[in-house]
């Protein structure tokens, strides 16, 4: 078995769509970023790559490369899945926390979970989606994701 | 086996008791929050729920529900323990980090550990309690908890 | 098996060398701290100690103790390795994320990985080194490390 951990953060900005775990989420703002700003899929990508010591999202998809401008972040996840498959591993389960002031995640957590499970090609029961508001942290303008993953041979 | 990760943060505020891992801690301030503000037990609850993909503390105990006003957070942990038992799992070990400016945790880490182990119903040797001050992070007014947990069938 | 998690943060400051994972990194600033400020090795030390519930870096190496002033943080890691060996465990794999504005980590991630693997006495393929810039978090003056570790008997 192997363990992986991923972190990501993106600032909210007006005028772009909000995408979380591959799911378009109706909201007044989206997340800034070279790609589609999907903070959760980026942290998942990094957790998977890290679990097999295969570098990180920046190694594979440098933000300086115009190819990834506005990219669908599911593409990054698929590359990470290829890396873990090549290394001979598959996902046991994945857990995550989104830290953001708005929107409320509880009503859409099931949909985000289904979207993430679909992108990962695993059952929903092996994907945890949780959320917190950033109490006391003065970071209401940013979305943060922490992801942990367990792999088996 | 399954892995879970939980995060929580609460701002310090005067005039309320400080409770960490179920242990009342003598201090000039406590933690704001709808319940007793026990940032460590909240992160533990979320790590357990996330490990079995059972939602999060906000799903089970919405802050809008008056029943949980001032609640003993051990109640939240017990609900999470029921969820992992129902899913057919038990705790192998749990590790945690508290990030807070004060009070000093080293002198009371053993007591917090015993309290957490007691609430979880597992031996102290399977509970890790660690602490850091938030060096460079400008968050002296808040307590943060990160928790990771490993489950087995 | 057992799981561990470690966190650390240190503010950047001019006039001191930057050391990351035991590797001296050419940069305009280093990290403040009682020891050599190696935020990554400190988080690794804590992840290892936490995985076997053996306290934390502050328990073993109090910052009030002059012996650890400017200390090589590899010393802290070695103590944690002794603790996990005494408890009857060894490292399966370790994953990490550094969150810092500068310097760029991608070009030196391989060297940091080799240095960490060497200090831990494990193959590089079992060490994950990743990095993020702190997008939206207003913490450009600080380096943060998150580390997760999986142990087996
Ligand atoms: Mg990103
Ligand atoms: Mg809470
Ligand atoms: Mg440190």
**What's the pLDDT, averaged over the residues of chain A?**
96
- Look up the CATH topology of chain A: 60s Ribosomal Protein L30, Chain: A
Alpha carbon gyration radius of chain A? 15 Å
Biggest sheet strand order of chain A reads: 4-1-7-5-6
What's the tally of helices of chain A? Answer: 4
- Uncertain parts of chain A: none
- Ligands bound here? magnesium ion
The oligomeric state of the chains shown is homotrimer
How much of the sequence lies in strands of chain A comes to 25-35%
What's the CATH superfamily of chain A, by name?
A: 2-C-methyl-D-erythritol 2,4-cyclodiphosphate synthase
Helical fraction of chain A:
25-40%
Reported for the largest beta sheet of chain A, the result is: 5 strands, mixed
Alpha-carbon distance between the two ends of chain A: 6 Å
Instruction: Identify the CATH architecture of chain A.
Output: 2-Layer Sandwich
Question: What's the level 1 CATH class of chain A?
Answer: Alpha Beta
Name the overall outline of chain A.
globular
Order of helices and strands of chain A: EEEEHHHEHEE
Biggest interface found: A-B, 32 and 36 residues
Enzyme class (chains A, B, C): lyase
Subunit structure (chains A, B, C): Homotrimer.
Protein name (chains A, B, C): 2-C-methyl-D-erythritol 2,4-cyclodiphosphate synthase
GO molecular function (chains A, B, C): 2-C-methyl-D-erythritol 2,4-cyclodiphosphate synthase activity
């Amino acid at each position: 078995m192997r363990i992986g951990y991923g972190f990501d953060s993106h600032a909210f900005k007006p005028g772009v769509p909000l995408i979380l775990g591959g799911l378009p989420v109706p909201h007044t703002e989206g997340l800034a970023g070279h790609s589609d700003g999907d903070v959760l899929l980026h942290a998942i990508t990094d957790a998977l790559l890290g679990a097999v010591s295969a570098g990180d999202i920046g190694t594979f998809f440098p933000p300086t490369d115009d190819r990834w401008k506005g990219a669908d972040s599911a593409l990054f996840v698929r590359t990470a899945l290829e890396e873990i498959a090549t290394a001979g591993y598959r996902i046991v389960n994945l857990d995550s926390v989104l830290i953001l002031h708005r929107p409320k995640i509880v009503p859409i957590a099931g949909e985000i979970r289904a979207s993430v499970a679909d992108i990962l090609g695993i059952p929903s029961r092996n994907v945890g989606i949780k959320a917190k508001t950033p109490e006391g942290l003065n970071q209401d303008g940013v979305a943060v994701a922490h992801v942990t993953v367990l792999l088996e041979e």
